[in-house]
Design brief:
With 245 residues, the protein is mainly alpha-helical. The protein folds into three domains: 47 residues, no CATH class; 75 residues, no CATH class; 91 residues, no CATH class. The protein is built from eight helices and three strands, in the order βββαααααααα. It has a three-stranded antiparallel beta sheet with strand order 1-2-3.
Length: 245
């Protein structure tokens, strides 16, 4: 059934004369005029059916901006392509803003695209900061010497293998620990005159046996069942005495 002749909205915001088969070039002179009173005296003219022709334009720019906002949010949440995501989000915001002022089009896609562009940028920035903080390395424990020090790094006097009776003094323990650490290739604490005396005192106050402490004081590596306990005591002394762990 064809639509009867009359004044109808043609989608441009103005009323146009429909002759029953096609649009003519006649437009209503007043947009607020009553279509029934402005209908020309033509046979068969009827009251207009304004709902028969769509009044809104498809929001192409709004949907394009919304799609760019979704894509930019996904890219911004990937730290490796965060910069690309920000560029796409910016493009989505601009396109959505232009679509918002498009006359006669639906506004909600443009509004959602603008909001998502801002929210996506914030989320991407948070993800980037968290990933950077997680990649910062923590403090590294100094490696324990695994092999006996070479003869070229031994002191001039050969250390005795006999363990003396009694617990060695903190100064002796600190000096022997310095020999072991340098033999392992670590010279970080040579510029810290208070480090080895402090570490010697911590080892002296620990639960390490007198025999193991005497080996450390003599510059010898501790072997046997107490080796693990000695390594833990040395690590604890290092964290306690190193001013910059």
């Amino acid at each position: 059934m064809s639509m009867p002749a009359g004044w109808y909205h043609d989608g441009s915001g103005r009323q146009r004369w429909w002759d029953g088969a096609r649009w003519t070039d006649d437009y209503a002179p007043d947009l607020d005029a009553d279509p029934a009173r402005s209908t020309p005296s033509a046979p068969g003219a009827t009251t207009p059916m304004t709902s028969a022709v769509p009044r809104r334009v498809v929001p192409v720019l709004g949907f394009v901006g919304l799609g760019l906002a979704v894509l930019g949010t996904v890219l911004a949440c990937i730290p490796a392509v965060f910069g690309v995501g920000v560029v796409v989000l910016l493009a989505g915001f601009v396109v959505s803003l232009v679509g918002l002022f498009k006359k006669g089009s639906v506004k909600w896609p443009s509004i959602v695209g603008m909001i998502l562009s801002v929210v996506g940028g914030v989320i991407g920035a948070v993800v980037l900061v968290v990933s950077l903080l997680a990649s910062i390395p923590g403090p590294v424990d100094p490696p324990l010497p695994m092999d006996s020090p070479s003869t070229s790094q031994q002191p001039s006097d050969e250390p005795t293998t006999d363990v003396s009776e009694g617990r060695p003094s903190p100064e002796e323990i600190g000096e022997g620990l310095a020999v072991l650490v340098r033999a392992g290739g670590i010279t970080t604490y040579d510029d810290m005159p208070e480090f080895y005396p402090c570490a010697g005192q911590h080892l002296y106050d620990s639960d390490v046996s007198d025999e193991s402490l005497q080996l450390i004081a003599d510059g010898q590596d501790v072997t046997g069942p107490e080796r693990e306990a000695v390594g833990q005591a040395i690590s604890a002394a290092t964290f306690a005495c190193d001013p910059q762990p």
